Amino acid sequence: MRLVLACLFAASTCLLSGCATTGSEDWVELRGQRFVVEIADDDASRTRGLMFRDDLPRDRGMLFIFEREQPLAFWMRNTYIPLDILYFDDERRLVSMAQRVPPCRSNQCPNYPSAGPARYTLELASGRAAELGVAVGDELRFGPTIAR
């Protein structure tokens, strides 16, 4: 009996302390498609980005958040997977994108600049933007766990 009570106590403690899945993953939505995202919102995480990764699932991405709207440019140094790079302004409207950007393992990687000031950059697996029919002006919706 004591063992049963101990197990029940441990299970209830775990549930109350958040051991169970809470469904609080960070996500964004673009053209009705939801992507679970990793957030890069400081210099270190933005610099590292998706470097050295061998895979990016089709329903995942990385959201780069900057302090203010400004011209942005990304490069693919040490990024092993091709990506779509989408730039969004303060209102989370698509400003421009670079699609099917190839990996780059050298020090001579080209830059992929935004066509105008942007505050958010979303990196997705190569080809996803075309699959969704993404166009300039599309809105990026944030899940409730992403600070605006």
3D architecture notes:
- The protein has one domain: Protein of unknown function DUF192 (Jelly Rolls, Sandwich).
- It contains 3 helices and 9 strands.
- 18% of the residues lie in helices and 36% in strands.
Task: Describe the secondary structure blueprint for this structure.
Elements: H1 2-17, E1 27-30, E2 33-40, H2 43-48, E3 60-70, E4 73-75, E5 83-88, E6 94-101, E7 111-113, E8 118-125, H3 128-132, E9 140-142
Parallel strand pairs: 2-3
Antiparallel strand pairs: 1-2, 1-9, 3-8, 4-7, 5-6, 5-8
Which key features would you list for this structure?
alpha+beta, seven-stranded mixed β-sheet, two-stranded antiparallel sheet, 3 helices, 9 strands, 18% helix, disordered N terminus
Question: What's the quick description here?
Answer:
This protein is of the alpha+beta class and 148 residues long.
CATH architecture label name: Sandwich
Q: N- to C-terminal separation?
A: 50 Å
The structural domain count equals 1
* Low-confidence runs of at least 5 consecutive residues: 1-22
Q: Helix amount, in percent?
A: 10-25%
Oligomer: single chain
- How many β strands by DSSP? 9
Outline type: globular
The CATH class is Mainly Beta
Strand content: 35-45%
Supply the helix-strand structural class. Answer: alpha+beta
What is the third-level CATH name, the topology? Jelly Rolls
Structural Rg: 19 Å
Biggest sheet descriptor: 7 strands, mixed
How many helices? The count is 3
Strand arrangement within the widest β-sheet reads 6-5-8-3-2-1-9
What average pLDDT do the residues reach? 87
- CATH H-level name... which superfamily? Protein of unknown function DUF192
**N-to-C SSE series?**
HEEHEEEEEEHE
